[in-house]
Design goal:
Blueprint: H1 2-10, H2 12-24, H3 40-52, H4 72-75, H5 79-89, H6 94-117, H7 123-134, H8 137-146, H9 149-168, H10 176-191, H11 193-213, H12 218-235, H13 237-245, H14 266-269, H15 292-307, H16 314-333, H17 339-344, H18 358-364, H19 378-393, H20 407-414, H21 422-427, E1 449-450, E2 456-461, E3 467-473, E4 477-484, E5 489-493, E6 496-498, E7 501-502, E8 508-513, E9 516-524, H22 528-549
Antiparallel strand pairs: 1-4, 2-3, 3-9, 4-8, 5-6, 5-9, 7-8
């Protein structure tokens, strides 16, 4: 067994890559497949457009809403699209770039979960837990049914956050773990706001429990933890603070009502896997199944843990109890009896789907493998878990139908410029919350600038956002610019800045131009507030990098 352990450490990465193949095999087919969030292909296209206009960090994209643009990455998690943009700049298509991000999330999830579990479990059980973490039916749903790139990336980061919190509260730790904590918290926030909001409270509970019951030097642990978390929040503050603060500038609206999306308890244990949608009642055509391997681990893990309860250390008991608590709280939050919390906790309705807590279930189940660790057959069972998890679930990790669609299909479907296709007109874009100055969505393409008076003599488009316009009129008139009014937009008349506002009915940029001949500039750039937070994030990130590279022990 010692020889197996040494070989596992030596060949860990090849083993993980090999074990990941059944989960990602269908990603090697040409083109994209049918998923709920195929619009992410178009969003990556918009990210690419913003980067190539040197809008860093990208926030306002130029083409959505019939060309009125949208502050998409001011509110939508940007990190998965940063990753996708890297691959796209390397020459991969938009579709392939997204699929590469999907595919890499699997081995990275397995690797980081293994590293986290190894703090408490033997090597063999840690590997079993990492495989169980990947081969849960909900993970297949995320990739091949929903296609939600943010949650897919977040699954790889969650174990790193948990591992860093454990390391921060260990008696012997390196200062670099403050930096790892910061970068993991920041990347989780940037990967998926909802997943971060869901997991961070659980992670903080583990951190606080360890400081209270495990750590001897509590003040030092508190300082390390506070510093790491603070640096994580300030490293990502360029995104999350404007997203929260400027959310008040948008209509409060969600496409889906959480009341309609509580799974029935029997759906967790019913071996069903489908490629459809979540609907009111127990008639969903998508799966909420825990998986027979996961269910078996929960039941056996709890029983075996209780049978040898006294043999577990205090640290192990806290860890196991934390896993059980995540599991039970998540099940409760997916049950209609938790509706009072969904009504009253801040921002929780934005989750839209209570079953999103399945992500926490998937994370918690491998922790319960600790219940096997005090038994001689525990290591043999670890092999059984690996085999069962893959054999019983790998067939979920496949496309519902072969579509073979390339970039062109998604650009035509979701990008309305230079003309809006019939497919685009059917989408409605209800997922985009309108700015408050907008009373109705645009229904057609408009010229970049327009006015009731034919006073615009020339329009020179600098890029997809900015333009210089020449006007000539005997009387003053109202000037309209076909982009949504939002912080970051500015206008000048003859090089003098003027005040702009939201026009009716589309919330377009509008302002008054006096009589005579004038040169008008309309342009987008970081607002002063955002520039401040960009600087804070950049400084914090530099500090984090220095901490990670530090070799000094403390």
């Amino acid at each position: 067994m010692e020889k197996i352990r040494k070989n596992l450490n030596k060949f860990l990465i090849p083993v993980i890559l090999l074990l990941s193949i059944p989960a990602i095999r269908y990603l090697f087919d040409y083109g994209f497949f049918g998923v709920s969030d195929d619009l992410h292909i178009a969003w990556l296209y918009e990210m690419d457009r913003a980067f190539k206009m040197f809008q860093i960090p990208p926030r306002f994209v130029p083409d959505l809403s019939f060309g009125f643009g949208y502050p998409l990455f001011n509110f939508v998690y940007p990190l998965p699209f940063y990753f996708g943009e890297i691959f796209h700049l390397l020459g991969f298509s938009l579709v392939d770039s997204v699929k590469i991000v999907f595919g890499l999330s699997v081995p990275f999830s397995m690797y980081f979960m293994y590293k986290f579990l190894k703090e408490f479990l033997p090597h063999e059980l840690s590997l079993a837990g990492s495989v169980l973490y990947v081969y849960a039916p909900y993970r297949a749903t995320e990739i091949f049914v929903r296609g939600t790139i943010g949650e897919i990336v977040a699954f790889a980061i969650i174990p790193v956050v948990a591992l860093s919190f454990v390391k921060l509260t260990s008696e012997r730790t390196s200062i670099k773990w403050i930096g790892v904590t910061a970068i993991s918290v920041a990347t989780l926030v940037l990967s998926h706001n909802i997943m971060a909001y869901m997991f961070i409270p659980f992670a903080l509970l583990l951190l606080v429990s360890r400081i209270i019951f495990i750590v001897k030097n509590k003040k030092e642990a508190l300082f390390r933890s506070f510093t790491g978390i603070l640096l994580g929040l300030t490293s990502s503050i360029y995104f999350w603070f404007p997203a929260i603060y400027e959310s008040s500038l948008m209509h409060y609206d969600t496409v889906f009502n959480f009341y309609d999306h509580y799974p029935a308890l029997k759906q967790f244990i019913t071996p069903y896997f489908g490629y459809g949608a979540s609907v009111p009642g127990p008639y969903d055509t998508m799966s909420f199944y825990f998986g027979i391997t996961g269910i078996a681990v929960v039941v056996l893990g709890m029983v075996l843990f209780l049978l040898k309860f006294k043999k577990y250390s205090r640290e192990e008991k806290i860890f196991f109890g934390w896993g059980v608590m995540i599991l039970l709280v998540s099940i409760f939050m997916m049950n209609f009896r938790s509706a009072f919390l969904w009504r009253n906790l801040p921002l929780l309705p934005y989750f839209q789907f209570p079953w999103r807590f399945l992500a926490m279930v998937v994370f918690s189940i491998p922790i319960l493998l600790l219940g096997f660790s005090k038994y001689k057959f525990g290591k043999i069972l670890s092999l059984a878990v690996v085999v069962a998890a893959i054999a019983l679930n790998f067939n979920y990790f496949k496309t519902s139908e072969y579509l073979g669609r390339g970039d062109g299909y998604y650009i035509e479907r979701y990008i309305p410029l230079p003309t809006a296709s019939e497919e685009y007109r059917k989408t409605g874009e209800e997922y985009l919350r309108l700015p408050k100055g907008t009373s109705q969505r645009p229904d057609k393409n408009y010229p970049r600038a327009y006015a009731d008076d034919p006073a615009i003599t020339e329009i020179k488009e600098i890029n997809a956002l900015n333009a210089v316009i020449v006007t000539d009129s005997e009387e003053g008139f109202t000037f309209n610019y076909s982009k949504y009014y939002f912080p970051g937009w500015f206008a000048k008349i003859d090089e003098e800045e003027v005040e702009i506002s939201a026009g009716k009915p589309y919330g377009q940029i509008t302002f008054e131009i006096p009589a005579g001949k004038h040169t008008v500039e309309v342009y987008y750039q970081e607002s002063p507030m955002r520039l401040l937070f960009d600087a804070v994030s950049l400084f914090s990130l530099g500090t984090v990098i220095l901490l990670i590279l530090a070799k000094k022990k403390k």
